Amino acid sequence: MRIKKLDSKAKQNLLEDLLKRSPNSYGQYEKSVAEILEHVKRDKDKALFAYTSQFDHAEISASNVRVTEAEIQEAYREAGEELIRIIRRAMENIRTYHEKQRQYSWFDSRPDGTILGQKVTALRRVGVYVPGGKAAYPSSVLMNIVPARVAGVEEIIMVTPPGSDGRVNPNTLVAACEAGATAIYKVGGAQAIGALAYGTESIPKVDKIVGPGNIYVALAKKAVYGHVSIDAIAGPSEILVIADETANPRYVAADLLSQAEHDELASAILVTTSEKLARAVSDQVDAFVEELSRGEIIRKSLDNYGYILVADSMDEAIDIANEIASEHLEIMTKNPYDTMTRIRNAGAIFIGEYASEPLGDYFAGPNHVLPTNGTARFFSALSVDDFIKKSSIIGYSREALEKVHKDIEAFAEAEHLTAHANSIKVRFE
């Protein structure tokens, strides 16, 4: 990996490089996505099945687009007992964590007859997009469906692209069934997002779409926002490690590569105060790449977006980490909890040398659907909050309104909204 001194020029170059990975930088695909969405909106199932044949080489129709109970049972047989056991253990951790995020309605009443409150209501129907094709991510299935189920969503519609044989990956199906999907459909890509957003003869319109996908899926979600809600526009995976001279270079290198293997746009960055550690990690990365199965992808990822930055101080290291606002942030320092308290921007924070990033991806319980491309400055991880909405409650007695009605009328008149003022005034004529 390239090693650079962390100075103002290196910082500027790094931030500019990382911005190139944003889905907002791929406008050349937007026209194609818009055409797909318009076609699905207009022709519904007909367009959906035509695109599935074109892109996934699978012949899907109204008779087989929905996964059947027989297909699910076959998936359980193919997945095997060991994986099912692991899925259930991971799901229990995910459920337990997200149950602590539940919000409840509340009401505050006063003696004068004032009632104020907040009513929390789960969304009725949500769509979950799960990548398919060569990749299968049952962990992502759990992370998207479990918080929706904890929130109390009634209908969870999952879509995922089929293989050319028209089947869905068995591990994906098992995870969806265990997590509580109410229906699973064999469609993917921008056309699946269109189906969820607008509805077709086979797939019902949803209230919100969540889940990761390729650039076409990301841009489609962006385009349908407003017709439905979405979680976020997901970008390529990323990891940043803050480490000092106490860190184990083998652990640091392994964790950097855990994200670099995702795809060629993935970002892996080490910020350290130790030149000795920087060199050791670089050497260990080279050794690991020779051993790992996705070596070609890793090399391209590191060539494009892999950095080792040597900072003069821990304050400087923390400052650049907060500017980058990485999806995953690992802290391997002498005083990791002190370092953690000074982190403002990160999707998920992993503390200490035994809290490696894949622990969060699969098993610990916090959600692994995280903000990317610097959006951790203002976005949070997917949570139960993403599957609820809040309505304010207002109730006043005549006595309570009488105390304040002149103030309200004066405020309305100051805004030249006389009908607003009149709406209050008529109650005291």
Q: Can you give a write-up of this model?
A:
By secondary structure, this protein is of the alpha/beta class. It is built from 17 helices and 14 strands. The strands form three sheets. Strands 1-11-10-9-12-13 form a six-stranded parallel beta sheet, with helices on both faces. It has a five-stranded parallel beta sheet with strand order 6-5-4-7-8, sandwiched between helices. The protein has a three-stranded antiparallel beta sheet with strand order 2-3-14, with no helix packed on it. Helix 2 crosses helix 3 (45-56), helix 3 packs antiparallel against helix 8 and helix 4 crosses helix 7. The chain is globular, with a radius of gyration of 25 Å. The mean pLDDT is 94.
Q: Which structural class fits the helix and strand makeup? A: alpha/beta
| Structure summary, number of beta strands | 14
Assembly category: single chain
Rg, alpha carbons? 25 Å
Low-confidence spans: none
**How many angstroms separate the termini?**
79 Å
Spatial order of strands in the largest sheet: 1-11-10-9-12-13
Mean pLDDT: 94
Roughly what fraction of the amino acids lie in strands? 15-25%
**What kind of sheet is the major sheet?**
6 strands, parallel
Overall shape? globular
Number of helices: 17
